[in-house]
Every structure is written in structure tokens, then in C-alpha cells.
């Protein structure tokens, strides 16, 4: 029976055949222990010299790290094994005996590992992180789909900026200027006017020359937009979505979280509702804690970390000054100097993972914002049409996938959260 390691429990006492790579090998002279991986998991194959032919024994001896092979053997339950099962090997069919593998089973420097990222992702820890990433994506999409959101794909090439910044990658679109998207939000607003509740999931690009552990040049965003939705309802949606994601990972990624050494106790607290404080209250908190901070500035990483320390689950900071937020955020009618917006700050020093707001639905106010931000109106004419033809209250948010993965996995740097990270000085491999 041909199978995979993740299904091996279905064949206890039976002979199976799997395609695999040799992760590691040790021998006691008369027994060879083959650490095998096939992408779905890891298992140990036990090869006893007196139970196989001399040819099979020699073929196994000649295998090097990351050699590819077919292995045949009988599945045996073993509670001492990490997976709970081992394979009593009866046959080995080498596909390729690999050259000397660059990433030996020892400590390597980060730059060396990043240069060999295409091979590094084969290691148990990196595989576990990527599996958790996949489950986070699954949980997000499942929750949104069940809540009647429709997936819509915005363009990657755009004629203008979403947030009015200069941190854009410029390219030529035949005879026109174009940019790699920094957000699909404006297009998702258009989609929401057609479909009600929508979301996008795709790559975004920020040409920020930043080297911090929270930043990537290319990263993935989940961006829901909701028609007939005010600020408060949007916050409820955000906290329910994130609660579902964390609890899904705890349920479905127990082995992977254990593999990477993640303390899951802080994650168990992540259930809705989340605490909420205003920007004013956050400023007051910082000053009380001895971090001098002036009203009207935006929070940096140290400020977000300090604020998060006062809570045991993610916290919303709401009602930022209009001046520090994007042009499309709706001012609070009762206090126009602040916006109906919120950033969701993760615990344990991971900073902002969601940013959202109620959007401006008044065409006259939006025109005023274009003037204040000196935005080219011709590039945003289509966006103005959304306010001319059936404008409604609407809200949305963006969830940064890599920061969310870093937080849930407890990683020191976002470079491990994506298969092939793009950073300030890294475009290889």
C-alpha cells in the first residue's frame, strides 16, 4: 500500500510504501535508524541487518542526508516515538543519493540559512511554521466564508497610492506610471458596493527602508470591507475573526506548536471580546509608565509593546488623531479631530496586527481630504464615484498575515513566517 507519513496510523501491522527524504541516520552496527520525512511528517525507519538482504543493507548505508528514496516496511505502533509510530523497514529503493548537504545538522548563522532558504524550509522547525501559516490562512478564509464574505481579487498594479505615501515601488505600465500595490483596500470598497461583504487575500508591497524584525518588503494581507457597517460592528468582526483563528491553530497545530517550542498558555486567553482603550487613554498610560509621549504623534514599536503589557490578550487602540491616519478614515462626528479607527495590538511585544476604520462616505468631505493630502483627483475619480452613486456607511480593516504568524508562533523575526522573505537587502533566493 502506497501512503504518506501523516496517514501511517491507518496501517498499523500492514506493509506500506512511502516516498521520502533521509533527514538523518544513525547506526548501531547491526541496526540502522533512518529518520525519514515526506513533507507530511517525520517517521523513523528501523532497518535490522539480519532481516534484509545484503543489497538493501548496503543501499541504506550509502544514503546521505537529503537523499531521496522509496521505503517499504511494516507499520508498528510505538509510544516512545515522537509520531507514535515507527516503520520496520524491509526494502529501500534509492532515487538519488544526494551530494553533501550544505545545511548540516548543526548551528548555522542566520545569513547562511537565509542564503539557503530554499533548503532551510525542509527542517522540522521551518516546516512546522509553514504548516501553522497554512492553517492560519485556512481559518481566516473559513471564518469569512461562513460569515457571507465573498473573496475578490484586487489588482497588484495600480495607478496610485492607497494611503497617499511615497513608499511605493514604481514601474512603467507601457507608457504610463504604475505602482505595486500597498493595499487592495480602495478596490475592495468598490467590491463591497457590489457584493456587500468582501475580502481580498494577496501580496502587498511597501518600499520602506526598514530593517526591523516586524517588517517585510513583500507581505500578505487579508483585507475585508463591509457595506452598511459602522466602526463598532467592524471591531466585533475583527475580534471574532482573530479569536477563531487562534483557537483553530491551538486545536489543529498542537504538534507543530510543540515542535517550535511555543508556550500556548498566552494564546489560550485570546477569546473575544478584547479590551479597548482610546488613543487618549493610551497616551495617558504611556506617560504614567514613564514613557514621555505627546498627543498627536503616532505610536512606535516600544509604545505598542508598553501598552500591550497592561493586557493579557490583544487590545484595540481606538480614535487616533486624524492627522496621523490615512485620508479615507471617517472623523468621529462628535469629535472631528479623531478618526473612527482602531489598531489591534498583539500581546508579547508583537505590535499592530490589524488596522481598520470606518471609511468616509460623504463625497464633499472626501474631496476636502484629497485637497489636504494633495492627491491627484484624476487618479481617484473612480473612487469618488463610489460616493456619488449610492454611498453608504462602510468599514474595513487589514490583517497582516506575517505579523500574525510571528505572534501565534512566538517568533523573534518575521523572516521565518514566509517561505521566501523579501527584506531590505535580500532578494535571493
From TrEMBL:
Pfam families recorded: tRNA-synt_2, tRNA_anti-codon
Subcellular location: Cytoplasm
Transmembrane segments: none
GO molecular function, one term: asparagine-tRNA ligase activity
Gene Ontology cellular component annotations, sorted alphabetically: cytoplasm
Principal location class: cytoplasm
Coiled-coil intervals, chain numbering: none
Domain Aminoacyl-transfer RNA synthetases class-II family profile intervals: 130-429
GO BP, sorted A to Z: asparaginyl-tRNA aminoacylation
Enzyme class: ligase
HAMAP family in the cross-refs: Asn_tRNA_synth
Quaternary structure, from the entry: Homodimer.
Family: Belongs to the class-II aminoacyl-tRNA synthetase family.
NCBIfam families (alphabetical): asnS, PRK03932.1, PRK05159.1
Name of this chain's protein: Asparagine--tRNA ligase
Organism: Marinithermofilum abyssi
Amino acid at each position: 500500500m502506497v501512503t504518506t507519513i501523516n496517514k501511517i496510523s491507518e496501517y498499523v501491522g500492514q506493509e506500506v510504501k512511502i516516498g521520502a527524504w533521509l533527514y538523518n541516520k544513525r547506526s548501531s552496527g547491526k541496526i540502522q535508524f533512518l529518520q525519514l520525512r515526506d513533507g507530511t511528517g517525520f517517521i523513523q525507519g528501523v532497518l535490522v541487518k539480519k532481516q534484509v538482504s545484503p543489497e538493501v543493507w548496503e543501499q541504506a548505508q550509502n544514503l546521505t542526508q537529503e537523499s531521496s528514496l522509496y521505503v517499504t516496511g511494516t507499520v508498528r505502533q510505538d509510544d516512545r516515538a515522537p509520531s507514535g509510530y515507527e516503520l520496520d523497514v524491509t526494502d529501500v529503493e534509492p532515487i538519488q543519493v544526494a551530494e553533501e548537504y550544505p545545511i548540516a545538522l548543526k548551528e548555522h548563522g542566520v545569513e547562511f540559512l537565509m542564503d539557503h532558504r530554499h533548503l532551510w524550509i525542509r527542517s522540522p522547525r521551518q516546516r512546522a511554521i509553514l504548516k501553522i501559516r497554512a492553517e492560519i490562512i485556512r481559518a481566516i478564509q473559513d471564518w469569512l466564508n461562513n460569515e457571507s464574505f465573498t473573496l475578490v481579487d484586487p489588482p497588484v498594479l495600480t495607478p496610485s497610492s492607497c494611503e497617499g505615501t511615497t513608499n511605493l515601488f514604481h514601474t512603467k505600465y507601457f507608457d504610463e506610471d504604475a505602482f505595486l500595490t500597498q493595499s487592495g483596500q480602495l478596490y475592495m470598497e468598490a467590491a463591497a458596493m457590489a457584493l456587500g461583504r468582501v475580502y481580498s487575500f494577496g501580496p502587498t508591497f511597501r518600499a520602506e527602508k526598514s530593517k526591523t524584525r516586524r517588517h517585510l518588503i513583500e507581505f500578505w494581507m487579508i483585507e475585508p470591507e463591509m457595506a452598511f457597517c459602522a466602526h463598532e460592528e467592524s471591531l466585533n468582526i475583527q475580534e471574532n475573526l482573530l479569536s477563531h483563528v487562534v483557537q483553530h491553530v491551538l486545536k489543529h497545530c498542537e504538534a507543530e506548536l510543540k515542535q517550535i517550542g511555543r508556550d500556548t498558555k498566552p494564546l489560550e486567553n485570546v477569546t473575544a471580546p478584547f479590551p479597548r482603550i482610546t488613543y487618549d487613554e493610551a497616551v495617558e498610560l504611556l506617560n504614567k509608565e514613564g514613557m514621555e509621549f505627546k498627543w498627536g504623534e503616532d505610536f512606535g514599536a516600544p509604545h505598542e509593546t508598553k501598552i500591550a503589557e497592561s493586557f493579557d490578550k490583544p487590545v484595540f487602540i481606538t480614535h487616533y488623531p486624524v492627522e496621523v491616519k490615512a485620508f479615507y478614515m471617517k472623523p468621529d462626528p462628535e469629535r472631528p479631530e479623531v478618526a473612527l479607527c482602531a489598531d489591534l495590538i498583539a500581546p508579547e511585544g508583537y505590535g499592530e496586527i490589524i488596522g481598520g476604520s470606518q471609511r468616509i462616505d460623504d463625497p464633499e468631505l472626501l474631496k476636502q481630504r484629497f485637497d489636504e493630502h494633495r492627491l491627484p483627483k484624476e487618479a481617484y475619480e473612480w473612487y469618488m464615484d463610489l460616493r456619488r452613486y449610492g454611498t453608504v456607511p462602510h468599514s474595513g480593516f487589514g490583517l497582516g498575515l506575517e505579523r500574525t504568524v510571528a505572534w501565534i508562533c512566538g517568533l523573534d523575526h518575521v523572516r521565518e513566517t514566509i517561505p521566501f522573505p523579501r527584506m531590505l537587502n535580500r532578494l535571493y533566493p
